[in-house]
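Q: Could you fold this chain for me?
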Amino acid sequence: MITFGIIGAGWRSEFYLRIAALCPERFKVCGVFIRNPQKREEFSKKYSVPIFDTLDGLLETDFDFIVSCVSKQSINETAQMLADKGIPVLTETPVTSKSLSGKIQVAEQFHFMPRNQAYKRIIESGILGDINQVQLSCCHDYHAASLIRFFLDINNEKPQKTEIKLTDRLNRYNSRAGLIEPTEVNAEQKIVIFDFGKKSAVYDFNYEQYFSDIRGTRIVIRGTNGEIVNDTVTYLKDGLPCTFGLKRNCFGSEENLDGLSLLNITGNGNILYTNPFKNTRLSDEEIAIATCLLKMKEFTDTEKEFYGAKDAYTDYSCFVE
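A: Sure. Below is the predicted structure, expressed as C-alpha cells.
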C-alpha cells in the first residue's frame, strides 16, 4: 500500500484523489491540507478522506510522501520547504527554479502515458533507425519539451529555437467543467522549431486541444529507417516499406463484462505496452499519474530518481531561455 498526503485543492489534486479511490488496494490518501475554508467544505463532502486546515496536521499523519498540488506561483517554495524538513515530495509542474534540492521528484507524467510508452518501445526496437526528428502537437510548453527529449533521447542540450504565434479561430464547446454552449474564440497557436544540431523538433500547439476534438493530437517521430505518424508505423524491411498500426486492447467493449479499462497496446505482433493498473477504470492521463505515484514510492525506498527537479527545469527553460 502506498500512502500519501496532498497539499492543495485545485483541479490537479482531484486526479490523485480519484486514482486512490479507484485503486484502493494500491493507494491511500492520508489527508489533504486545504487553506481555503470553502474548498475544505467542498472536498469534505466530495471525498472520504481527512481534510486538514493546517499543514502541521497533515504532516503528523503516516505517509510515504507528500504530493504538492499548489498554485504555479508556490510550487518551488512549497517543494523546497518540504524537502528542507526531510519530507519526500512529489511536486506538480512547472519547476521554474534550478536550485531545488532534497527529496524532490516531479509529476511530469506525459512520457508515462500508454501510447507514448508504446512509441518508446518501438524506438528502442531499432526498426526506425536513428531518431532525428519529432513533430509534436499534443501538450503545452514544458510538457512538450519533456516528450521531445524523451523521444529524441536528449539530456540537457540547449537547442536553437525559432518561434512564431498565429491566431486560430475555432468554436470552443468544452472546458474543465464540461460541455458549454459553442462560442467562437481567437485562440493562440504557438509553433516553435528546436534545432539540437543533428536532431530537431517542431512544437505546434493550441491550448484548446486539451478539451477539443476539432483540434486533434498529432505526433510524428522520424528516424533514418522509418516514421511513426500517430497510430501508424512505416519502416523499411529488406529494402521495402512495411506498415503496421497500433491497437488498443480494452476490456468492457461489446459483450465483454470485465469492466472498462485498458489492457495493452499491440503492434506488428508485439505487446508494446501493458497497463500496470488493468481492470481499473482509469484514463490514460490517470494511468500516467498513477505510474508517477509508483515511481515515487520506489524513489522513497531506493533513492532511484525518475524525474528530478533538474530535468523539469530543463523542460521549462526550453521555452523561457
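A (continued): The mean pLDDT is 95.
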